[in-house]
Amino acid sequence: MKLTLEIWRQRDPASAGRFERYPIEDATAEMSLLELLDRLNDALVAAGQDPVAFDSDCREGVCGSCGVTVDGRPHGPVPNTPSCRQHVRSYADGDRIRIEPLRSAAFPVLRDLVVDRSALDAMITAGGHIGLDAGTAADADAEPLPKEAAEYALDFAACIGCGACVAACPNGAAHLFAGAKLLHLGTVTRGRAERGRRAKALTGAMQEQFGPCSSYGECVQVCPENIPMTAIAAVNREVLRARLRGKAD
């Protein structure tokens, strides 16, 4: 299969970027988009040129590091599928594929397809965690959690922090990510003790670098873990709850 790749190339954050066109003569339907980039980089290195920089790790749809924008859509053409699980079979012989970084003011480009997603890390540092006393771990049965609550928490814990929701949002909002963390940690037994403090801290960090949510819904269409829009509703609800209680839990 012959394909033409238009790849965003940018040397560093201070440099101007541009699209460069590369023909691929031997693509196969079984290849993932990342394997397609691997094939391109093999050819570039063999020709003495700089390979295309892009992030990847597990390549199993678990780590969230591989996000790119494909033909204007975060991750690629198949809904709710990470970039590493998007395949060439979605295209026909002779097609052109435009690949660029995840686009958001909160995700500055570092090089080529690599972006800085530390704005998401700042939210986790501020409130995306549970405080525990150091020492011997508590017995697993000491703090029972109903199965339904555990399953509910795990559904939102599935968020892999890829940032596609932010890139898909016209406002660059991170409410789907924030809501997933709040619902996950606010449901488990230990997490409920810090529920109010967490809501204030996490959303405060979110508002510093991300835009407002207008409930467009593009975020849920690209989320690899199918986090529902109920996570977005949880953001304002958790903040309001904390305010009504007058102080952090």
UniProtKB/TrEMBL annotation:
InterPro entries linked to this entry: 2Fe-2S_ferredoxin-like_sf, 2Fe-2S_ferredoxin-type, 2Fe2S_fd_BS, 4Fe4S_Fe-S-bd, 4Fe4S_Fe_S_CS, Beta-grasp_dom_sf, Helical_ferredxn, SDH/FRD_Iron-Sulfur
GO annotation, biological process: respiratory electron transport chain; tricarboxylic acid cycle
Cofactor binding note: Binds 1 [4Fe-4S] cluster.
Protein family (similarity comment): Belongs to the succinate dehydrogenase/fumarate reductase iron-sulfur protein family.
Alphabetical keyword list: 2Fe-2S, 3Fe-4S, 4Fe-4S, Iron, Iron-sulfur, Metal-binding, Oxidoreductase, Tricarboxylic acid cycle
Protein name per UniProt: Succinate dehydrogenase iron-sulfur subunit
Organism: Mycolicibacterium fallax
Cofactors that this protein relies on: [4Fe-4S] cluster; [2Fe-2S] cluster; [3Fe-4S] cluster
